[in-house]
Amino acid sequence: MSDDFKPIKPSILPGFMELLPEEQILFNQMKNTIEKIYQESGFAPIQTPLIEKEEILLAKAGGETEKQIYRVESDSKNMMLRFDLTVPLARYVAQYFPSLQFPFRRYQIEKVFRGERNQRGRYREFYQSDIDIIGHNELSPLYDAEIPSIIYRIFSALGFSDFKIHMNNRKLLNGFFEAIGIQDKVSVLQTLDKIDKIGWPATEKMLQDQGLSQSQIEQVYTLTQISGTQEEVLGRLSALDYENETWLTGLSELKGLHETIQDFQVPLTHYQLDLKITRGLDYYTGTVYETFLTGYESLGSVCSGGRYDNLAGFYTKEKLPGVGISIGLTRLFFQLNEMGFFKDRFKRYSNVLILPMDASQIQGAIQLTAALREAHISSEVFLDEAKFKKKLNYANKLNIPYVIILGEEEIKTQIYTLKNMEEGTQESLSLTALINFLRIHI
Amino acid sequence: MSDDFKPIKPSILPGFMELLPEEQILFNQMKNTIEKIYQESGFAPIQTPLIEKEEILLAKAGGETEKQIYRVESDSKNMMLRFDLTVPLARYVAQYFPSLQFPFRRYQIEKVFRGERNQRGRYREFYQSDIDIIGHNELSPLYDAEIPSIIYRIFSALGFSDFKIHMNNRKLLNGFFEAIGIQDKVSVLQTLDKIDKIGWPATEKMLQDQGLSQSQIEQVYTLTQISGTQEEVLGRLSALDYENETWLTGLSELKGLHETIQDFQVPLTHYQLDLKITRGLDYYTGTVYETFLTGYESLGSVCSGGRYDNLAGFYTKEKLPGVGISIGLTRLFFQLNEMGFFKDRFKRYSNVLILPMDASQIQGAIQLTAALREAHISSEVFLDEAKFKKKLNYANKLNIPYVIILGEEEIKTQIYTLKNMEEGTQESLSLTALINFLRIHI
Fold first, then answer.
1. What average pLDDT is seen over chain A?
2. Could you give the 3-state DSSP secondary structure of residue B50?
3. CB-based contacts of A350: which residues, under 8 Å, 6+ apart?
4. CB contact under 8 A, B47 and A19
């Protein structure tokens, strides 16, 4: 290229997340921790294409979703990038129905795309991390209690000691609306979902605008204010004495959830029955979940989901009830990172850097690296000619915890000096001792 | 939905790969094996957005690439899906140059998109698995010998004992073309690249059409027929006695590669110097690699790459020489799967299925599952009401290796019977003994 060639300014589109390697390592650790717990809980992985047919993705969508869609074109037409993992799951289960075993327990951790308004921490390409348990015709409500046990294990494993899973039941809410004579249940549900964000006075105003009477509003207020221990909440709900079947079923499911969740070893301190949790989507029909990290309330719910009656009605006549949750990984990572959660956790995959003093130690340095890798100890060798200070600086900048400097003496004696870069200590070790030492200390 | 509602037929676009969960597990195992070796070799992960600016992706592209591109539209314009991981890497290194340490060792295993002609085993959305080592201004040729050691470790770890890394040097080839007076080096390179596929007579014809004289063609033939052990090939090349600097540099690099690669512990049986390997892309400037699995030659090269002088000239004035390789994971998996490579390897993440005999053992079954998961043993509990035969069938279909059936007796005694589903054997164990047994046997 000629000297007056002007490079194109390297940049990415606004609203897309891109990390430096040391941040990417942390992101991957978070993702792998979650995946490991899915696997330990007997969920199988699936992946679906990022591009799907328009007729599939838009079978249900509309309104906001449709406006946010990324359309794709090549020689083919009517293609789109998926905007969630639920629609592809529904299509997948309907498509491979005869090959799947039910209950079908699947996890999927992949990217989805939404043309969201450009806003700090809101990304247009982001990871969702979903699990669902899907039955054929029936799915025991006991599974509703398994889901929070997985949420509990995930956030514990991610390093949070203090968080709470909030739960409610849509049948209970619908039974309540029925009992007090509310017609437009969905609108009221969506309003209630905002109480914690907008406060009661604004909620009351919205309910008035939606045509609720003062008496109805008072009963809504009473319901959403119910709080206390799980037993207290259940006691107060029973005392309300509504008698329609939907209410009674909801109440009984909520009681069952509370009993079974303890068998799944979720501590009483980490969940609560919360009548204000509704999950606005009309999709849910039973238990609903939201998860809040104590000290990080501004993040909102970091893991949400619920029970639905029928996953894939748009693609099959088979009845597929299920229960599932989703974590928005990209946003969660961004926010935790901003709040300093990962401070001091930065690390590099490479645990050992081998530095030959000069060219005559290169062969020995390469052989030592090969021996460490053979022992599955992550290691690298610096092979460029450079001032020694520059080489050490490389180890420092990358937070490589151990360095072995190879001089004439080390090559001759085959005794290696392992420097701990953080503590400044060092050990003199034979190859076998070196491998054993590193296996224990890394 | 009303009874006369007609579901949309669930399907994906042609040319996209989608796997059943048991195949996805195998795919993920293959991907994780490769990633682990990248990490052990001190490469750091990066991920880049799937959607990039048109001006970035098309800075160099043209011809075939441009025709295969997927364009993306939302409220923004001029967006595309990436067609490889090299262009995004170049953009990334140019963009974050001041924050990176050199040599910059990165790996990236992500999906790319190409609107390829629809053909069995050719996918339009596929994983590439890339590593590169990138220097600033300089990068020691010793790194060219590290790359094959990583290829060697990968295919060994994937379970292949017999494969060969073929290597050549573009400087050697260019020096040769110079010596025998060939002008259009790139066209001839691309023709030579096809010898093994189309045979010599067809190659000869193409070289004639490209205007080579009979004498030039004979010299080309002589060069590409050089074979034997690495020492023999190097000896025959030295005997050719060309004297231009490009040739001599290439020959010296090839000799150095042969020496250093052995320090990296690649056995002589697993690589060869092959003058027919050229890698048609004009991008490469030194060492080039291709990898062939013995017994699977119809796959072509399963891992290819090489050395280049400057990665990111379109986006920065910094000189960034590097060396790297790429594996097309999706196609490789498809082909190996078709050829039966994964036969009998199918497995399920869940290792233990717990079956309560009837409703009164459900609580105990849930508690046992929770205890196993706490011990990081992947397990699940069957909670739906179903005939016992159906429950056992679930374990069989999913290849779950161990089943624990919980009856009254087991709950009372807290002694569990662990059934090995494959061998038909069983053990009676307390919870602690059960966990220890499974830790050893899974």
1. 93
2. coil
3. A378, A379, A380, A398, A400, B42, B44, B105
4. yes
Closest residue in B to A395 (Cα–Cα): B101
Residue A121: pLDDT band with limits 50, 70, 90: confident
Q: Tell whether B131 is within 8 A of chain A (Cβ).
A: no
The ipTM (two decimal places) reads 0.94
CA–CA dist A360, A423 (Å, integer): 29
Considering only the C-alpha atoms of chain A, give the largest distance between any 2 of them, rounded to a whole number of Å.
Answer: 91
Helix spans in A96-229 (H): 143-157, 170-180, 185-192, 195-198, 200-209, 214-224
Contact in structure between B60 and B88 (CB atoms under 8 Å) = no
Q: Report CB contact under 8 Å: B42, A350.
A: yes
pTM of the predicted model, to two decimals? 0.95
CA pair distance B283, B311, nearest whole angstrom: 9
B41 touching chain A per CB within 8 A: yes
| Angstrom distance (rounded) from CA B142 to CA B209 | 39
Which pLDDT belongs to residue B63? 63
User: Residue A328 pairs with which residues in a beta bridge?
Assistant: A128
Contact of B30 with B330, CB cutoff 8 Å? no
Contact present, B349 and B378 (Cβ < 8 Å): yes
Judge contact between B291 and B150, C-beta under 8 A: no
Token pair for residue A125?
Answer: 């390409």
- pLDDT, tens digit, 9 for 90 and up, residues B128-170: 999 999 999 999 999 999 999 999 999 999 999 999 999 999 9
B48 min Cα distance to partner chain A (Å): 6
